[in-house]
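subagent[fold] <- orchestrator: predict structure for attached chain, return tokens only, no commentary.
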Amino acid sequence: MDGSRDKKALLDDLRIERDRPAVARRRPLKWFVAVAVIAGLLFVGWEYGARRLARAEIAVQTATARPVVAAPVGDSVLDATGYVVARRQATVSSKTTGKVLEVLIEEGMAVREGQTLAVLDDSIPRAQLALAESQLEAARASLDEIRVNIRQAELDLERVDELAARDLASRADRDRNRLALEAFVARLSRGERDIEVAERGLAVQRRMLADFEIRAPFSGVVIAKAAQPGEMISPVSAGGGFTRTGICTIVDMDSLEVEVDVNEEYITRVFPKQPAVARLNAYDDLDIPAEVIATIPAADRGKATVRVRIGFLRRDPRILPDMGVKVAFLEKPRAAADADAPAPPSGVLVPPTAVFEQDGGGHVWVVENGGAMRREVQVAETRRGNTRIASGLAAGERVVRALTETQRAALRDGAEVRVTP
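subagent[fold] -> orchestrator:
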């Protein structure tokens, strides 16, 4: 019996159930649907992330393409260092001591000649002006009274003359009335002089009142602000440090020039109108054409140098007072240099990091209206910390200064960018 049961169990294990294949056939379909749903979600997420990344603003720094400016031609015969100085600079103060009510300027502000810089407390001079006006009116009223007295004296003298002609008045009466008339005439002349004095006094008071408004002596730029509202100001130092002696310092930027000290052994190489090239220490790539204005006819015995004044032939907003300058004095006079001067190089200058080389060519990213556009350019040369682009970019256009590897991977043509300082 046990043997027959074992055989039956073995046969049951070998029996094929008809319902099992249907279940096995349905299971792969479920897995396929699940995988398809997950793949669809991943694709939608990737597409959304890619679009979001494309629309995201990329923070970049920009530089402006600068035109290439030719410097004067000639070999340098002497190099010197100096500083930018202003021939026209003034610390503006008041003519009188007073309390500051308003200060209408700030550092870096451009002012015009005659523009009001500050206002002082003018309560006392304004009261003195009102007093002078009242004194003038009183003098004019007194003059009217004298004129009336003169008319009365003239009538009295006429009556006395008529009476004297009929022997009804004495000669003494006539003299008395005539002298009275002359006295009133003299008082009238004195009254007229008093009115003239009062008018001049009134003009002085008005001038003093106007002096309580401090105005710019010339057009320029404010480089220092020395006083604040509520402080006392005086044209002379009052001691103790509680009284200011000026409102601000103004510099005429059109009067900037260079002063250098040349060793007296080489001063013979310098002559008036000599061409030169000035280069600011802060902008080593900026060559500014210049020429010698004059050599100061005095030497410094301590340093054995002679001071030389040099004027800029081209103004640049980057030139500031007290900047350090290197000056190269050129050998040829300007007329001779211009005669055989080669044509100035064309193109614009940009930082070397703004040019990206790829596939044997170069391109830059031009920033315009909040977007970055790829621009193919022709690179001419790189020297003195600048890359000269011969074509493909115009002066004044803004380009991306540099990009990190992450930014280069994310940046696309037309992508939105945000310019950072």
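orchestrator: received. Logging for downstream: The chain has a mean pLDDT of 81. Residues 123-165 form the longest helix (43 residues).
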